[in-house]
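A reminder from the course coordinator: this example appears on the midterm review sheet, so study it carefully.

Given structure:
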């Protein structure tokens, strides 16, 4: 396959994955706020697409998905959502990609998903402390850690279930 054709197909696949991540982000807006959690706490369903992208297309493509999600958050929920999404998303993607590419595989998809969720919340807590100018935000850390375990487990399990479909979709674009 010609390099230009391959790059075009890869870009088309990345666009479809980006659209899927945006659709999942949009659907999350219909989940009501969860009591005890900070405003805007969401399960991170779009990270299913980010992790698949990181494992199949690479780091920069996964960062692209992360940035697209953050811009979407900014456009639909304002600049604070943009910065919170970007900080959590980039840290999450770095952790996700690093764990996916370890020579020894101590974590499965679910373990990587949980680690990524924890990193996402950590990135958001640091950003929230910076935005608000208070360290008291760190008080949410224990609750968010428990939330990360749950959401990471759910998104990891969903990813395991949909990997065959996402791989089939990828083959359609890359063949």
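Designed residues:
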């Amino acid at each position: 396959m010609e390099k230009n054709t391959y790059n075009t197909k890869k870009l088309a696949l990345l666009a479809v994955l980006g659209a899927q991540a945006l659709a999942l982000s949009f659907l999350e807006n219909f989940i009501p706020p969860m009591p005890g959690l900070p405003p805007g706490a969401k399960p991170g369903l779009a990270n299913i697409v980010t992790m698949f992208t990181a494992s199949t297309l690479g780091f920069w493509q996964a960062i692209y998905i992360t940035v697209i999600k953050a811009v979407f958050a900014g456009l639909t929920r304002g600049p604070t959502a943009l910065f919170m999404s970007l900080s959590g998303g980039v840290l999450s993607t770095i952790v996700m990609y690093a764990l996916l590419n370890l020579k020894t595989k101590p974590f499965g998809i679910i373990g990587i998903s949980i680690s990524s969720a924890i990193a996402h919340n950590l990135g958001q807590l640091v950003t929230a402390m910076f935005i608000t100018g208070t360290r008291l935000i760190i008080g949410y850390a224990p609750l968010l850690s428990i939330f990360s375990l749950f959401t990471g487990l759910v998104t990891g399990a969903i990813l395991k279930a949909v990997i065959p479909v996402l791989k089939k979709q990828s083959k359609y674009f890359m063949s």
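The helical segments are 3-28, 47-56, 59-77, 79-100, 109-132, 141-174. The chain has a mean pLDDT of 92.
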